[in-house]
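pinning this so it doesn't scroll away 📌
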Amino acid sequence: MFTIEIRRTFKAIQGLPAPVRENKNLPPLMPTDGFQVTMRVGLSFGDNQLGGRGWFVDTDALDDPIDYCVDHLTSRPWTETFPFRPSFENVARWTYDTLADDIPQLRYVELDNDTIGVLTRYHDPN
């Protein structure tokens, strides 16, 4: 079994308040230019799915849908972008759902908040 992981690193402004930090009179964690986030997109396939060129999918063909998601996640604060509460959990699920039709055998999407060291993974529910 193989797993391919495609990564993109970008800055994103989540825009949610931090009530626990506010209650403790602590400053917000998010820098003014946003959190640094590494998005990882993983797909899996078996030996029997390798084609004549020795690969399952040309990863160049996956750039457009992945870059669409990155553009969406970096265009403005998430609180202005999404109709739902943009927790990292909800945004990871949105990203997975957005990519699922374009990426064969998509297994997971991770949003790694590099700024604070918290990783959120949404994986294939099957």
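📌 and the second one:
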Amino acid sequence: MKVDIYRRSEPRNKLTYLIVPSGQPIPEEATNIDWQARQQGVHVDETQDLLHPFEIDHPRAQIEEKGYAITSVYHQVEAGQSAP
């Protein structure tokens, strides 16, 4: 699946990632956060249980349910080890 990737900074030098199907806007419930666009039209295997390096659990299920997939608070990425 081709997706657009966004990132936001979190407390304690952590990062959260959000992916949406390529070319689609971030759904309204997630737009109140300051997301920074990182990459567009990136191919990812959304069938993975955990999408590395963005640390997103069950991306396909999340996209089907919400229209986007997001890093869990339990898997936030250390800023020094961030994904692209």
